[in-house]
Amino acid sequence: MIRLVYISTARTVLSTAALGEILRVSRANNAASDVTGFLVAGGRRFLQALEGPSVAVDTTFDRILRDPRHFATVVLSRDTVGDRQFGQWSMGHQPSSAGGNVTSALVNLIDQIPDATVRAQFEQFALQHAC
Prior knowledge:
Layout: E1 2-10, H1 16-33, E2 36-42, E3 45-52, H2 54-66, E4 70-80, E5 92-94, H3 103-111, H4 116-128
Parallel strand pairs: 2-5
Antiparallel strand pairs: 1-3, 1-4, 2-3
Helix pairs in contact: 3-4
């Protein structure tokens, strides 16, 4: 099993409805392929963790790379792991709160991430994208 964490930039700010549709499709696809994860949006930036069988995660990530709605995708980490950090979600999501402040909205969720490196990636994202 692997965990892949990446960051990307949306070409435009996505509406709540557009983001909701992306999540709906992603959750269905991920559940069908045994991929779990977590997505955080802050402005036009996205931080996402995907975890599961390596072929399934790589296939999912390849689909993400081909999606024209975003660019500047950078893999922050890709590691072999024994345990899932986000096993309860086919794709958990935490939107930014009013005004785009993701810091307060993420505190409780971030604190629950057992892996210190993954937790730090999400903490840093929240700090950088807080308003």
